[in-house]
TrEMBL record:
<keyword id="KW-0812">Transmembrane</keyword>
<dbReference type="InterPro" id="IPR001851">
    <property type="entry name" value="ABC_transp_permease"/>
</dbReference>
<dbReference type="GO" id="GO:0005886">
    <property type="term" value="C:plasma membrane"/>
</dbReference>
<feature type="transmembrane region" description="Helical">
    <location>
        <begin position="99"/>
        <end position="117"/>
    </location>
</feature>
<feature type="transmembrane region" description="Helical">
    <location>
        <begin position="137"/>
        <end position="162"/>
    </location>
</feature>
<keyword id="KW-0813">Transport</keyword>
<dbReference type="Pfam" id="PF02653">
    <property type="entry name" value="BPD_transp_2"/>
</dbReference>
<keyword id="KW-1003">Cell membrane</keyword>
<dbReference type="InterPro" id="IPR052157">
    <property type="entry name" value="BCAA_transport_permease"/>
</dbReference>
<feature type="transmembrane region" description="Helical">
    <location>
        <begin position="20"/>
        <end position="38"/>
    </location>
</feature>
<protein>
    <submittedName>
        <fullName>Branched-chain amino acid ABC transporter permease</fullName>
    </submittedName>
</protein>
<feature type="transmembrane region" description="Helical">
    <location>
        <begin position="45"/>
        <end position="62"/>
    </location>
</feature>
<keyword id="KW-0029">Amino-acid transport</keyword>
<keyword id="KW-1133">Transmembrane helix</keyword>
<dbReference type="GO" id="GO:0006865">
    <property type="term" value="P:amino acid transport"/>
</dbReference>
<keyword id="KW-0472">Membrane</keyword>
<feature type="transmembrane region" description="Helical">
    <location>
        <begin position="258"/>
        <end position="280"/>
    </location>
</feature>
Length: 292
């Protein structure tokens, strides 16, 4: 019999972790919803972002919260370069070709990481004094609380970009109908470049935040890819609110699964939710309305 206080603590930890999951999944959802590309390298992009923050922390002692901004900038540039050099030749050429290219990219990133940094897991420290917040009935650790707040802020910033900027309006128009967007004078090729840049940058930001909570090694990309897929399927492709709710649900369910079934079943819970939602409600909890 599991004590009730452990259940409450697991739910709280899951909610805080779910914020980062939502941030990571938002990039995957944007790329799929707008470009119709299943980014199989998304988890490995997250891994690269984590290593950027870890290496900066190891070399300078600067908190990964600052390193995260460099990770965002570098990963945005990586996404732009990837679209201009590689993906533009296969996007809109069918579903299979981008998948094959991105699967190959994931393997390249994984092996480059293993060769350059070794296979050992590394982690970073928040770099801010303090243990956390004791609310009496639950304890909120400082790294999890800070990373949750930063994740939500980045999600809100992305939502505001999509809602209130001309670039965001062009992105949403392209997602609804690329041909019509072209007739309206929107440079959809440029929108694809920006979209992949944003999606990759969000993966880098999530990786930097996760590096303060979990060890990172070159092989974690597949695990986080599965988790972000589960979040996107649960929340609904293109829905920012759905992605946030999906992230929180997956975070809580993983923690409760680890509590009741053991840590080895953490990813199994995500997979079961992924399959269950596909069977019962394939459009996700928030449908395919997207954009909000």
């Amino acid at each position: 019999m599991v004590a009730s206080d452990l259940v409450v603590q697991s739910v709280a930890n899951g909610l805080l972790l779910g914020g980062i999951y939502a941030l990571a999944a938002l990039g995957l959802s944007l790329v799929f919803g707008i470009m119709d590309v299943v980014n199989l390298a998304h988890g490995h992009m997250l891994m690269v972002g984590a290593y950027i923050a870890i290496l900066i922390f190891a070399a300078t002692g600067i908190t990964p919260l600052v390193g995260m901004f460099l990770a965002i900038a570098l990963m945005f540039g990586f996404g732009v370069l990837l679209q201009k050099v590689l993906l533009q030749h296969v996007v809109d050429e069918g579903l299979e070709q981008p998948i094959i290219v991105l699967f190959g990219l994931a393997l390249v990133l994984q092996n480059v990481g293993r060769i350059l940094l070794g296979g050992d897991a590394r982690t970073a420290d928040l770099g801010i004094p303090g243990n956390g917040f004791d609310l009496g009935f639950v304890f909120l650790s400082l790294p999890r609380t800070v990373t949750f707040v930063v994740s939500v802020l980045l999600i809100v910033a992305t939502w505001a970009l999509l809602q209130y900027t001309k670039t965001g309006q062009a992105i949403r128009a392209t997602a609804q109908n690329r041909t019509a967007a072209k007739y309206m004078g929107i440079d959809t090729d440029r929108i694809y470049v920006i979209t992949l840049g944003i999606g990759t940058a969000l993966a880098g930001a999530a990786g930097a935040l996760l590096s303060m909570i979990f060890p990172i090694d070159p092989y974690v990309g597949w695990s986080y890819l599965l988790t972000t897929f589960a979040v996107v399927v649960l929340g609904g492709v293109g829905s920012v609110l759905g992605t946030l709710v999906g992230g929180l649900v997956i975070g809580v369910s993983e923690n409760l699964g680890a509590l009741f079934l053991g840590g080895g079943y953490r990813n199994v819970v995500s997979l079961l939710i992924f399959l269950g939602v596909l069977l019962v409600r394939p459009q996700g909890l928030f449908g395919s309305g997207g954009g909000s």
